[in-house]
Automatic annotation (TrEMBL):
It comes from Crotalaria pallida (Smooth rattlebox). This is squalene monooxygenase. GO terms for cellular component: endoplasmic reticulum; membrane. One of its GO terms (biological process) is response to hormone. It is found in: Membrane. Keywords: FAD, Flavoprotein, Membrane, Oxidoreductase, Transmembrane, Transmembrane helix. Residues 344-616 form the Squalene epoxidase domain. It is a multi-pass membrane protein. Its EC number is 1.14.14.17.
C-alpha cells in the first residue's frame, strides 16, 4: 500500500515506508490480527478502516530495534501515541453512541443522498450518519412536548387567568345577570353597575347614597339586610355629624330616638371634671349623637334605597374577580344560595372588622388589645346629662353614654383577648367585685341590676393601621381598611370623612372603566385621608394606653397628669377635646398636647423640691410618653401624616369636568 507505515506488534517491524507528508497528518487505525494474535496498524491518508484497537505500548517496544536515530524514533512514537490515543477515544465515543441510540434506528451504513426526508449528521471521520423520518418525527415531538411542559409549569397561572378572563367576558356578553329580585335580565355593555359596594354598614350605606346621588349606578351586596344589633358604633362625634351634614344624611339621626352629646365627664378616684365640645362657632344642631347602631344603619339603608340607580341585594360575597391584575367584580351567593357574579369598573369593600376580602387589598396587621363587655342600664340618670362618661378604673376604663331616652350603654374594657366566661358566672362575678365598686354611686345600683339581668355581650376591640396595596379596580373603606380602639368613638367619623374625600375625587370622573388611571386617583385617596384619619387613630391608641392602670410609677404619673391637665380648662381642655371630637384633627396639635401633658407631669413631680428619685421618674415619664405615641405614629406613616404634600399622589387630581 502506497504511503503506508506497517508496524506489526509485538513482532519487530521488518518494513517501513515513510511518506512525504508528516506523520502527524496521518490517521492510525488497526486493520487486522496477525496469525500470532498481534495487531497491525496501518497509516493511511484515505478512508479509515476500523478494527480492534492496538496496544498503546507497541511503539515503545519497537523503538530500540528500528534502524532510525533515537530522536526520530522518539518523535515517531510520540506522534503515533498522540494520534492513536485520540482515535481510540473517538472510537469508544462512537461505540457508546451506537449502543445508546440503536433503538432510534440510526443508519451506520452509507445512506442515500440527502433528501427532504433525511438529515445528514457529521462524525469525526469522513463517514456520516443519517437519520430517517422516524427520528425527525421523534425530535419534533420531543421539542413540542418540552414546549407544552414549559407552558404548563411556568405559564399555567397566566393561562388560567386569560382563560378565566375570556370566560368572564363571554359570560358578561350573555344575558345572565341576576337582579336583586332574582330575575334574569340583559346586562348592559361594560357591566351592570359603575360601582359595587360590599357591605351596607355605616360606611357602605353612606357611600351608596353618596355615589348614587352623584349619578353612579351602584350595586350594594350585604350579608344581612335585617337591622343589626351591636354594642359598638353607637356614638357619633360632632366632627362626624358635620360630615353627615355634608353628605346630606343628617336626617338619618332623626326618628331613631338619638341623644345629643355635648362633651365628656371624666372620673378618677372620686373626682370628676367636665369637658365640653367647642361648639360655639357652629349651628345649634351641631353636636355629638348617640343612638342604637342598628337603627342608624337601617335609616341610611332606607335612604340609599330611595335613589333609583342604587340596588341593594342580600348576599354573601365569597371572592373578588380578578383578570390580569385588575379587579373586575365579585362572586357571591344570594339569599337563595345561588352562586352569581357581578361586574363593575370599581369595587369598594366595606364588609367590616371581620372582613374576609381585605387580605388581597392591604397588609392587615390586626391587634386586639382588649375586649368590651356591654350592658344596658335602665331607669337611671347620668351624673352629667348629655355627656359621655369615662371612669378611669383599674385595670382599664369604663364608658357610659345614653343611646335612647330610657337606656344607657355601659362598656367595660377588659384588657387582653381572653375575658371571663359568661356561661359559668365568672363574668358576672368580675363585674360585681372588680368594676362595680369603682362606678359612681348614681349608676351603681342600675349597673348591678343589669348584671343580674344577664344580658351581657362581648366584642373584641381591634386596631389596624391602614396599609393598602393599591389594586386597579378595587378599594377598601371603613373598618375593613382601618380600625382604632373604640374608646374615643372615632370610627364613624373616620369612615364618613373618607367618603367625603372619595366623593370629591370621583365626582369629576365621568368614566370609571380606565382602570390604571382610576388606580392613580385612588392612590390619592389613600394620601388625602391620612391627616384626619391618622390623628383620630393616634389619639385613640395613645389615650387608651394612658388611661389604663399600670404598676409602673411613671405610667401612674402620666395618667394623673392627663387628668389634671384636662381639668385645667380653657386651652388645655379645648385643644384635646377638639381633637377627640374630630372638629380640629391636626396631627401637629395632637403631638404638642400629648407632650405638653408629659411635661406638665414632670413639673408636678419636681415641684416644689426636685429630688434624684423624682428626676428619675420624670425622665422615665418622658420616655414612657415617647414609647406610647411614636410607635403609633410610625405605624400610621410619618410622612403621610405630617407631610402629605411631599407625597406625589397628593397632587394627582381628576381631570376637570367637560363644560
Amino acid at each position: 500500500m502506497r504511503d503506508a507505515l506497517i508496524l506489526p506488534c509485538p513482532i519487530i517491524p521488518t518494513r517501513c515506508t515513510l511518506a512525504s507528508p508528516p506523520l502527524s497528518s496521518l490517521f492510525f487505525v488497526p486493520v487486522s490480527h496477525t496469525a500470532n494474535n498481534a495487531t497491525t496498524t496501518t497509516c493511511t491518508r484515505g478512508r479509515v478502516k476500523q478494527r480492534n484497537p492496538l496496544p498503546l505500548s507497541c511503539a515503545f517496544k519497537c523503538a530500540p530495534l528500528l534502524p532510525f536515530p533515537t530522536s526520530s524514533v522518539i518523535s515517531l512514537s510520540q506522534t503515533f501515541l498522540r494520534n492513536f490515543s485520540s482515535e481510540a477515544e473517538r472510537e469508544e465515543t462512537r461505540e457508546r453512541k451506537r449502543q445508546r441510540f440503536s433503538p432510534l434506528r440510526f443508519s451506520l451504513r452509507r445512506p442515500p443522498p440527502f433528501t427532504v426526508n433525511s438529515l445528514r449528521l457529521g462524525f469525526s471521520d469522513s463517514r456520516c450518519g443519517m437519520v430517517d423520518p422516524y427520528v425527525i418525527g421523534w425530535v419534533l415531538f420531543s421539542g413540542l412536548s418540552l414546549f407544552a411542559l414549559y407552558s404548563l409549569v411556568f405559564k399555567g397561572n397566566g393561562g388560567n387567568d386569560r382563560r378565566e378572563g375570556s370566560s368572564e367576558k363571554e359570560e358578561r356578553r350573555s344575558e345572565n345577570v341576576t337582579t336583586a329580585a332574582g330575575e334574569r335580565g340583559s346586562e348592559r355593555r361594560g357591566g351592570d353597575a359603575d360601582v359595587i359596594i360590599v357591605g351596607a354598614g355605616v360606611a357602605g350605606a353612606a357611600l351608596a347614597h353618596t355615589l348614587g346621588k352623584d349619578g353612579r349606578r351602584v350595586h350594594v351586596i350585604e350579608r344581612d339586610l335585617n337591622e343589626p344589633d351591636r354594642i359598638v358604633g353607637e356614638l357619633l362625634q360632632p366632627g362626624g355629624y358635620l360630615k353627615l351634614v355634608e353628605l346630606g344624611l343628617e336626617d338619618c339621626v332623626e326618628q331613631i330616638d338619638a341623644q345629643q352629646v355635648f362633651g365628656y365627664a371624666l372620673f378618677k378616684d372620686g373626682k370628676h371634671t367636665r369637658l365640653s365640645y367647642p361648639l360655639e362657632k357652629f349651628h345649634a344642631d351641631v353636636a355629638g349623637r348617640s343612638f342604637h347602631n342598628g337603627r342608624f344603619i337601617q335609616r341610611m339603608r332606607e335612604k340609599a334605597a330611595t335613589i333609583p340607580n342604587v340596588q341593594l341585594e342580600q348576599g354573601t360575597v365569597t371572592s373578588l374577580l380578578e383578570d390580569e391584575g385588575i379587579i373586575k367584580g365579585v362572586q357571591y351567593k344570594n339569599k337563595d344560595g345561588q352562586e352569581l357574579k357581578a361586574y363593575a369598573p370599581l369595587t369598594i369593600v366595606c364588609d367590616g372588622c371581620f372582613s374576609n376580602l381585605r387580605r388581597s387589598l392591604c397588609n392587615p396587621k390586626v391587634d386586639v388589645p382588649s375586649c368590651f363587655v356591654g350592658l344596658i342600664l335602665e331607669n337611671c340618670e347620668l351624673p352629667c346629662a348629655n355627656h359621655g362618661h369615662v371612669i378611669l378604673g383599674d385595670p382599664s376604663p369604663v364608658l357610659f353614654y345614653r343611646i335612647s331616652s330610657t337606656e344607657i350603654r355601659c362598656l367595660v374594657d377588659v384588657p387582653g383577648q381572653k375575658v371571663p366566661s359568661i356561661s359559668n358566672g365568672e363574668m358576672a362575678k368580675y363585674l360585681k367585685t372588680v368594676v362595680a365598686p369603682q362606678i359612681p354611686p348614681e349608676l351603681c345600683d342600675a349597673f348591678i341590676a343589669a348584671v343580674d339581668k344577664g344580658n351581657i355581650r362581648t366584642m373584641p376591640n381591634r386596631s389596624m393601621p391602614a396599609d393598602p396595596l393599591p389594586t386597579p379596580g378595587a378599594l377598601l373603606m371603613g373598618d375593613a381598611f382601618n380600625m382604632r380602639h373604640p374608646l374615643t368613638g372615632g370610627g364613624m367619623t373616620v369612615a364618613l370623612s373618607d367618603i367625603v374625600v372619595l366623593r370629591n375625587l370621583l365626582k369629576p370622573l365621568r368614566d370609571l372603566n380606565d382602570a390604571p388611571t382610576l388606580c392613580k386617583y385612588l392612590e390619592s385617596f389613600y394620601t388625602l385621608r391620612k391627616p384626619v384619619a391618622s390623628t383620630i387613630n393616634t389619639l385613640a391608641g395613645a389615650l387608651y394606653k394612658v388611661f389604663c392602670a399600670s404598676p409602673d410609677q411613671a405610667r401612674k404619673e402620666m395618667r394623673q397628669a392627663c387628668f389634671d391637665y384636662l381639668s385645667l380648662g380653657g386651652l388645655f381642655s379645648q385643644g384635646p377635646v377638639s381633637l377627640l371630637s374630630g372638629l380640629n384633627p391636626r396631627p401637629l396639635s395632637l403631638v404638642l398636647h400629648f407632650f405638653a401633658v408629659a411635661i406638665f407631669g414632670v413639673g408636678r413631680l419636681l415641684y416644689p423640691f426636685p429630688s434624684p428619685k423624682r428626676i428619675w421618674i420624670g425622665a422615665r415619664l418622658i420616655s414612657s410618653a415617647s414609647g406610647i405615641i411614636f410607635p403609633i405614629i410610625k405605624a400610621e406613616g410619618v410622612r403621610q401624616m405630617f407631610f402629605p404634600a411631599t407625597v406625589p399622589a397628593y397632587y394627582r387630581t381628576p381631570p376637570a369636568e367637560d363644560k
